[in-house]
Amino acid sequence: MDFSDVSLVELRVFREVAERGTLTAAATALGYTQSAVSRQIASLERAAGAPLLERRRDGVRLTAAGHVVLRRAVTVLDEIDATARELAGLPAEGGTVRLGWFASAGAVLLPRAVAALRRTHPAITITTREGSTPALVRALRAGTLDLALLAMEPPYRPLDTESPSLAVQTLSERSLLLAAPASHPLARADSVDIADLRGRHWIAAPSSAKEKLLGVWPGLDERPEITHTARDWLAKLHLVAAGCGLTTIPAALAAAAPPGARIVSVRGGSQERRRLVLAHLPRPLAEPAARVAEALRTAAADASRAP
Fold it and tell me: What predicted TM-score, i.e. pTM, was given to this entire model?
């Protein structure tokens, strides 16, 4: 193997493919043709002397050699980017932090943390993007995100099977909640029994083979009647407020409920807990990222103290 002629372009293309999971998606993100991406990957594989990607019908998966090259590529590219920022004269306490987040975090938790940082550390630039857990984990591994805010449910399995494991810090752990129209009989008390959820109309996110059904109370012993589908959590809450049905929400989103939607807890059945975690590569965080992590911890603690 000979890495002496490997270019930064090849490393960036490989990182993008590792994150996106397909050559086509990587080409689209980079503004390249798929054949150009294929050529860059082929050149890198020749230098490595081994296949870096396993071609599959549903995309690509890193080989053992691919994981090694990705870890080193992330380090090299991060150092190059850091050098460019330093030469540009960015203040020592500043920098850009790339944060990924799951859908419901964008309504309350994320804005609170970003607003706090703008007051206390205005030199830090935060760029964010929403994504599914698998997509955000791939982005962490590829080095295109510094931090990822994720939701987990029991039994809290590792986020992926790669080694070394991602560093994961629990920010809060609270029960799943139910949103009901204020005029609904279930909204008359602070809690309801799981048996009272049978035969109700639900508002849920569209499900697929890759995405779980979100919005219906887990573990119901019946086929739920879903009358409205929406991916956006706030859209679901506003549909609840309009009297269109029930939906589930994580506790962190309770503060975003509009007038007309009542948030209650559910008794009985299995304990439906949700854990809010912050994940990153298993290495010390740079100072700007550490500041962002601290702001997220504070925002999550404040949300946990809310009723």
Answer: 0.74
